[in-house]
């Protein structure tokens, strides 16, 4: 049975919730050895994780709060959305000493678990500081980075738009220079989607309370972020009714071996910080890292829906315009 540890900033952008729901409903046996939270605010994000696990009847999974926004790792308040609109019940804060998260991460790595990082890399940096060298041989899959530019028809994001690595550059620099992760970069995850056409399937009885929770948050997120106007109307290869991108779910699926339509290459990367911005540049002098360089985003988005809901879905590829 494959072991994985999820390091997340669940509670804001809803793709963390989509990723966790997919893991909880993965079609093959999966041992989630722990979940740690980065960028927490007084234990609220960790409390959100616990609420999701309670809804899924998976309170057996160990959870720990890690780095807090109040500890000065981030240049601004990471913020949380309106609780009453996003959650069916009030979030119960679940703070704890950051050492609890580091202990849980270390225990997972000691068990041979693959660590999937889908938020800021602060917890992993703190782990490396506490146990120098622990990341060297750890199996890491990280959502983030900007290696190759976006393809035509998808969001024309820049390197600076990558949240996970840029919001805590010091931690990202430490992690990328002391480990050999698999990177699932932002321009790649920008080819995936959660769209309004999927909401009836998420609300279907067979999708259960997790599906209903995702649909609830998707409606609120769509109203708040209006990605259909920002991207659906401007990116020809995305659905017009896009709600969000499946950044984190894609990273989790690749970590678990889902490679249908996925290309992974080993590229020599030179990691540098210039004017406060982290860069991962392909350079013959760089260190070889595994990088996802191509995917079939529509195929993955269909796979995610069927996995997270266990409901067969119709073809949901964007229609020609």
Task: Describe the 3D structure.
The structure is a single chain. Mean pLDDT is 95; it is low at 315-321. Helix 4 (98-110) packs across helix 5 (122-130). This protein has helices at residues 15-24, 44-55, 83-86, 98-110, 122-130, 163-166, 169-177, 186-189, 199-203, 208-225, 227-232, 247-255, 297-309; strands at residues 2-8, 30-37, 63-65, 114-117, 140-143, 182-184, 194-195, 242-244, 263-274, 277-282, 287-294. Helix content is 36%, strand content 19%. The chain has a single domain (2-193, 239-309), classed as Alpha-Beta Complex (Inosine-uridine Nucleoside N-ribohydrolase, Chain A). It has 13 helices and eleven strands. It is an alpha/beta fold. The chain has a nine-stranded mixed beta sheet with strand order 3-2-1-4-5-6-11-9-10, sandwiched between helices.
Question: How would you concisely characterize the structure shown here?
Answer:
By secondary structure, this protein is an alpha/beta fold.
Strand content: 15-25%
The CATH topology annotation reads as Inosine-uridine Nucleoside N-ribohydrolase, Chain A
* Number of separate strands: 11
- Radius of gyration (CA) equals 18 Å
> SSE order in H/E notation?
EHEHEHHEHEHHEHEHHHEHEEEH
Name given to the CATH homologous superfamily: Ribonucleoside hydrolase-like
Structural class: alpha/beta
CATH architecture annotation name: Alpha-Beta Complex
Topology:
Layout: E1 2-8, H1 15-24, E2 30-37, H2 44-55, E3 63-65, H3 83-86, H4 98-110, E4 114-117, H5 122-130, E5 140-143, H6 163-166, H7 169-177, E6 182-184, H8 186-189, E7 194-195, H9 199-203, H10 208-225, H11 227-232, E8 242-244, H12 247-255, E9 263-274, E10 277-282, E11 287-294, H13 297-309
């Amino acid at each position: 049975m494959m072991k994985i540890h999820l390091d997340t900033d669940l509670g804001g952008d809803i793709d963390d919730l989509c990723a966790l729901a997919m893991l909880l409903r993965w079609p093959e046996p999966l041992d989630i050895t722990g979940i740690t939270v980065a960028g927490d605010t007084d234990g609220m994000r960790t409390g959100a994780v616990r609420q999701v696990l309670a809804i899924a009847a998976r309170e057996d999974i160990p959870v720990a709060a890690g780095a807090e926004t109040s500890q000065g790792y981030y240049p601004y308040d990471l913020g949380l959305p309106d609780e009453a609109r996003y959650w069916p019940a009030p979030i119960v804060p679940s703070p704890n000493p950051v050492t609890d998260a580091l202990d849980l991460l270390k225990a997972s790595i000691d068990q041979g678990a693959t660590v999937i990082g889908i938020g800021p890399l602060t917890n992993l940096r703190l782990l490396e500081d506490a146990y120098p060298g622990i990341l060297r041989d750890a199996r890491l899959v990280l959502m983030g980075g900007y290696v190759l530019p976006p393809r035509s028809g998808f969001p024309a994001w820049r390197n600076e738009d990558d949240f996970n690595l840029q919001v805590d550059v010091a931690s990202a620099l430490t992690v990328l220079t002391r480990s050999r992760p698999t990177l699932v970069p932002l321009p790649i995850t920008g080819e995936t989607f959660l769209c309004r056409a999927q909401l009836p399937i998420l609300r279907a009885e067979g999708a259960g309370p997790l599906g209903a929770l995702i649909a609830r948050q998707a409606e609120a997120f769509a109203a708040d972020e209006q990605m259909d106007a920002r991207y659906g109307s401007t990116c020809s290869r995305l659905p017009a009714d896009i709600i969000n991108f499946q950044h984190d779910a894609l990273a989790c699926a690749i970590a678990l071996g889902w490679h249908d339509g996925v290309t992974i290459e080993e590229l020599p990367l030179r990691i540098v910080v210039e004017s406060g911005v982290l860069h991962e540049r392909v350079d013959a002098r760089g260190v070889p890292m595994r990088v996802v360089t191509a995917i079939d985003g529509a195929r993955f988005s269909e796979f995610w829906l069927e996995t997270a809901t266990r409901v067969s879905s119709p073809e949901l590829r964007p229609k020609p315009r």
